[in-house]
Amino acid sequence: MFRQLVAGPNVTNNINSLFTYHPLQISAIIETVWLNRSNATNSQTSSPFLPWSPQITHPILNADFFPGYHWPTGGFPPPSPLPPLSIPHVKPISQPGLGLDVAPPHKPLRSTNWDHLIYAYVIENTRIFEIFSKVLETYMFSEQLETPTPQSQLFWRNLEFLIFGDAMPSMLWTTSSRLRRDEIADRLTTYYWMFGIDLSHAVEIAGQHPYQKPAAANRDFIPTFEAFGREVWRGIVNAKNFSGANDTDATVISTLARRLYDMMATRRINGNLSREEFRAVAIMSYLELAVRYDSPAVVDLKASASSPEMRLQKIAERVGMTAHPKSKPFFDLAAPFSKLMQSIETGSYNEPWQAPVLYSLMSPAADIAEKVIDQYSLATGRDLKSQAVSTVPRATTSSLPIPKRQSPPPQLAARPANGHGTLKQ
Amino acid sequence: MKSEPAENPEANEIVFVENASAAEPANQEELGELLGKLTPRQNKLLTNLRRLYHSLRGPEDVLDEDNYSRPFPPQIRNTTSNKD
Fold first, then answer.
1. Contact A4 B42 (CB under 8 A)
2. How does pLDDT run across A2-59, given as a tens digit for each residue?
3. Domain count for chain B
């Protein structure tokens, strides 16, 4: 969600400003993104939950950065406010992904959208959540790490208040309560519900965060998706070939796409799991942005690097942890996988005539499908570019002789239609 | 009941027109697929998909452009070539 919020001109300024906002401003951003969502109504999978109204959020979003007054210059004339920590500072209402007109009355100019739950699942597999949790804990209870700069302190404060803190009851992204206190366990349940799979490090965290596995879960998601990926890859290969046999089967692709579509739609009826997805995606995108560049938090931890996975690994090493060794393909997979899953959920490939869009030359959908197939194979080690081979178990015993057909005993007559035999008198 | 296509030219004509209207889009799609081209319907779908992808774009493309690359040595200019 925060990925889409900051995407636009001057990305670094947008992210630096985001990290220094007041938690209430970030809360107002979250509510506004939900308010302006593209699937608010007219769909069987729309969620009815109401966010804060614009009358509440607009004054908060339009507020300047304001840490307090500079009192040495105070008195008369009035004291001057301090300059913002991130210069140039971008107001929340000016964030490009919010879709609001900067001029009053701040009309929404376009709808908002956020990533699919698969994005959160893939990013969380890098162990980013556990690593940042450990760093925050280390900051709080020791001086093992250097004291963070003011900019970095605001980032960690937002992280503690909004992600690791007790949720604000009036917010729509509040998904924890006295009934479901453990958010990590709740997220594991949601992943299992939607994809029928656990995180790669689920065994390590399941002891501290026991979670439930719903009986009605999409357990066939991974086998179906892998079959879909293999068929699409056949299409991509054949689209680039100008000779030889073409074994692309648009009907099979559309059948598998329809199967995935139905799995997702069934779980999402009446907006079920929408808020859980929204929160999971928002949390993971906030953390991902922190390692996408040399952010203040990264610099303070002396973890500057040329790629997100290297930054994450360096941060992990500072607190005696390690990131997932395949974090690189995870980071590269998350965004295209999210786009592919959302396009499947729109029903874009449910008919055979639609399937060629996934593998035709010069099609952006084919680019995304190819990226997903590449990175999925690297991340999971299961090669989607090879054709599926099914093994049939061979007989291990010798064939038995054909039993001799025995004639019926003479005293039994032919059975009547009611199935009861009769004895000859 | 026997059909009499030869004796009823009007009926034949209607059948011919119906067949043509049903088969034409399919042939276009098959031909387009053979040539690697997308049909108008598929292009319309692609336009919708482009809008979806745009709504999901993130900052990674911009942020990944960094200055960590080791520079190539500068080009050596041949100063003697201008003397001719």
1. no
2. 999 999 888 999 999 999 999 999 999 999 999 888 877 777 777 778 888 888 988 9
3. 1
Asked, for residue B28, whether it belongs to a domain, the answer is yes
Interface of B with A (CB under 8 A): 29, 33, 36-39, 41-42, 45-46, 48-50, 52-53, 55-60, 62-64, 66, 68
CB-nearest partner of B58 from A7, A112, A354:
A7
Q: Are A297 and A290 contacting, i.e. CB atoms less than 8 angstroms apart? A: yes
Residues A206 and A139 occupy one common structural domain = yes
Tell me the pLDDT tens digit for each residue of A133-168: 999 999 999 888 989 998 899 999 999 998 888 877
Same domain, A211 and A185: yes
User: Whole-prediction pTM value?
Assistant: 0.82
CB contact under 8 A, B56 and A335: yes
Which residues of chain B does A285 touch, with a Cβ-Cβ cutoff of 8 Å? 58
The answer to whether position A422 is within a domain reads: no
Give yes or no for a contact between A252 and A229, defined as CB atoms under 8 angstroms apart. Answer: no
Number of structural domains found in chain A: 2
What does residue A48 show for φ and ψ, rounded to 5 degrees?
-85, 0
**Residues spanned by the domain of B18:** 10-47
Nearest-angstrom CA–CA distance, A281 and A296? 22
Of A65, A91, A113, the domain-final residue: A113
